[in-house]
């Protein structure tokens, strides 16, 4: 099987400091991949690079067979890339379903004049989109918030709302930046189950996560970063027994 | 029952009825004149609210577009003898093209820098209008001919009132349509979280440019209407204070609320008229009222009041 994403020699420099240096890896379609590493290892920087929020200093990134280096996020979204954020990026000026509907932007009639005149083509598409948004909110377990304003929702629910919004695009690859951060054990278990359901539906999931139990439980493939470099790569079993990883990150066993 | 606040279209028939019965309370042309100015400002505020309230982009230069619209139609119809309807259309095109040309570089900025850039743009337009006296009449202003549409002359306060009332209804309807569409959600997402919008596939800069042009054309349209209605225009129309007035209407009435922008325009246009009895104190009281509203209702009148009513139910 050919890789969904290939990263080669990726480097990102901030004011002379290499946040990511000479990083190469592949993401195979249809699995749960995790990126782990101590604080400051460059995990979120890596996410921002592959989703087009940052431009790489050097190196190549290709996604879905296209060279995506330097592509803006909205162009990557067209290729099937979707993501959530470590620090929540929910539109607090909108309702919860509307947030999910924004995620479906590329699949809707976006012409200006029909929208301005409220032509039937637009309202019909919007009604279907509203139903789809409600369906996704149920899928992530937010049926209680179908009428809620985003700014009236608790933190844990907003994390799921971001996942629902990302799924609304029907992406090929979904990047989740610390989906369990700030959640209690119960909520983490629920997110765990949710991520597995998403992966089963055929979406390739890439995860940045601190919660080691979550990562070891659900990942098919793990990439370990340290100081912006690849420390190790492999299955959770291999990573668990890799001496370098143990000393750098997991602590002496 | 407060679900009604969730359906903004419910306000449209109410607005239509208010506009239809309002003239019953008018006893002289002055009342009509004030009402017409309210309507002119209301349409501009509804358009500007799309940019400021919904898309979250400030503009301190929209009077520039208002004035440019007024002068373009004034010059084309008055100096060059174009039929006014054609000169109005030309004014909308001129303003639309100008707004489009400047929008891309300007809207790469945000916050204070965007405010400064739009401020500069507005001042630039008003300076050009003041100094090119050979064409615009300079600071003394210029006379603008009346409009006639297929032989029907649009003249006098009563006729203008009905035209402006229809324009406002259409403007509110268009604004409501836009906000509740994929385009409108993309615009609100630009305000809510620009990076989230981009990741969802929204080309944020294009949407900012789009709504900047739309709001500029709204302002230009009312500039042309104002010019043909009053028959006389001065560079003040494009001035800095006029821009600030428009922004104040949006902020006072309530950002991201179409009816809020409308109420803001009503208050800011009629309040100075009502306060004329206080002579010297007029501006002091006016300023104090604005300050009090912003201190106690920072989200603006309409959003604050509807939120309170919803909670109370």
UniProtKB/TrEMBL annotation, chain A:
Transmembrane segments: none annotated. Pfam families: ABC_tran (PF00005), BCA_ABC_TP_C (PF12399). SMART domains: AAA. GO terms for biological process: D-alanine transmembrane transport; L-alanine transport; L-isoleucine import across plasma membrane; L-valine import across plasma membrane. Signal peptide: none annotated. InterPro entries: AAA+_ATPase, ABC_AA/LPS_Transport, ABC_transporter-like_ATP-bd, BCA_ABC_TP_C, P-loop_NTPase. Keywords: ATP-binding, Hydrolase, Nucleotide-binding, Transport. The keyword Cytoplasm does not apply. It is an enzyme of class 3 (hydrolase). GO terms for molecular function: ATP binding; ATP hydrolysis activity; L-isoleucine transmembrane transporter activity; L-phenylalanine transmembrane transporter activity; L-valine transmembrane transporter activity. Its EC number is 3.6.3.-. The keyword Transport applies. GO terms for cellular component: plasma membrane. Residues 5-252 form the ABC transporter domain. PANTHER family: AMINO ACID ABC TRANSPORTER ATP-BINDING PROTEIN, CONSERVED COMPONENT OF ABC TRANSPORTER FOR NATURAL AMINO ACIDS-RELATED. This is Lipopolysaccharide export system ATP-binding protein LptB. The lineage of its organism: unclassified sequences, metagenomes, ecological metagenomes.
TrEMBL record, chain B:
It is found in: Cell membrane. This is High-affinity branched-chain amino acid transport system permease protein LivH. The keyword Transmembrane helix applies. One of its GO terms (molecular function) is branched-chain amino acid transmembrane transporter activity. It is a multi-pass membrane protein. Pfam families: BPD_transp_2 (PF02653). GO terms for cellular component: plasma membrane. Its main location: membrane. The lineage of its organism: unclassified sequences, metagenomes, ecological metagenomes. Keywords: Cell membrane, Membrane, Transmembrane, Transmembrane helix. The chain crosses the membrane at residues 37-56, 63-82, 88-107, 114-135, 160-179, 209-229, 249-271, 283-302. The keyword Cell wall biogenesis/degradation does not apply.
């Amino acid at each position: 099987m050919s890789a969904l994403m290939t990263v080669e020699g990726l480097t990102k420099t901030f004011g002379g400091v290499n946040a990511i240096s000479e990083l190469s890896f592949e993401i195979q379609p249809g699995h749960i991949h995790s990126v782990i590493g101590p604080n400051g290892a460059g995990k979120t920087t890596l996410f921002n690079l592959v989703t087009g929020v940052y431009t790489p200093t050097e190196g190549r990134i290709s996604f879905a067979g296209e060279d995506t280096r330097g592509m803006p996020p909205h162009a990557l979204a067209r290729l099937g890339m979707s993501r959530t954020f470590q620090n929540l990026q929910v539109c607090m000026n909108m309702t919860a379903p509307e947030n999910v509907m924004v995620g479906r932007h590329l699949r809707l009639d976006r012409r200006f004049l029909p929208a301005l005149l409220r032509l039937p083509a637009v309202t019909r598409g919007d009604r279907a989109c509203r139903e789809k948004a409600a369906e996704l909110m149920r899928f992530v377990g937010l049926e209680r918030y179908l009428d809620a304003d985003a700014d009236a929702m608790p933190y844990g629910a907003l994390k799921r709302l971001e996942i629902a919004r990302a799924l609304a695009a029907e992406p090929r690859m979904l990047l989740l930046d610390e989906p369990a951060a700030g959640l209690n054990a119960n909520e983490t278990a629920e997110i765990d189950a949710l991520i597995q359901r998403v992966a089963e539906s055929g979406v390739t999931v890439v995860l940045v996560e601190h919660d080691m139990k979550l990562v070891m439980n659900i990942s098919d493939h793990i990439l370990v970063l340290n100081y912006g470099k690849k420390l190790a790569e492999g299955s959770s079993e291999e990573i668990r027994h890799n001496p370098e990883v143990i000393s750098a990150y997991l602590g002496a066993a | 029952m407060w679900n009604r606040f969730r359906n903004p279209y419910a306000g449209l028939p109410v607005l239509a009825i208010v506009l239809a019965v309002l003239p019953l309370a008018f006893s002289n042309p002055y009342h009509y004149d004030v009402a017409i100015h309210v309507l002119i400002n209301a349409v501009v505020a509804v358009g500007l609210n799309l940019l400021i309230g919904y898309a979250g982009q400030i503009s301190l230069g929209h009077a520039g577009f208002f004035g440019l619209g007024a002068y373009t139609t004034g010059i084309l119809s008055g100096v060059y003898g174009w039929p006014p309807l054609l000169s109005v259309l030309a004014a909308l095109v001129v303003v639309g093209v100008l707004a489009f040309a400047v929008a891309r570089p300007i809207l790469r900025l945000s916050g204070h820098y965007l405010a400064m850039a739009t401020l500069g743009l507005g001042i630039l337009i008003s300076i050009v209008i003041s100094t090119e006296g050979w064409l615009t009449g300079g600071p003394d202003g210029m006379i603008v001919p009346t409009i006639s549409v297929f032989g029907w002359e649009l003249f006098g306060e009563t006729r203008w009132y009905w035209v402006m009332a229809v324009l406002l209804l259409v403007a509110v309807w268009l604004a409501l349509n836009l906000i509740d569409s994929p385009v409108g959600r993309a615009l609100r997402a630009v305000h809510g979280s620009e990076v989230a919008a981009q990741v969802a596939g929204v080309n944020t800069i294009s949407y900012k440019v789009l709504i900047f042009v739309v709001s500029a054309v709204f302002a230009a349209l009312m500039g042309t209407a104002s010019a043909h209605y009053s028959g006389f225009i001065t560079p003040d129309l494009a001035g800095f204070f006029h821009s600030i007035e428009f922004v104040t209407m949006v902020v006072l009435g309530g950002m991201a609320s179409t009816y809020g922008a409308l109420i803001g325009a009503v208050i800011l246009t009629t309040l100075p008229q009502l306060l004329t009895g206080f002579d010297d104190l007029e501006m002091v009281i006016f300023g104090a009222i604005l300050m009090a509203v912003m201190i106690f209702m920072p989200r603006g009148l309409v959003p604050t009041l509807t939120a309170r009513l919803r909670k109370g139910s």
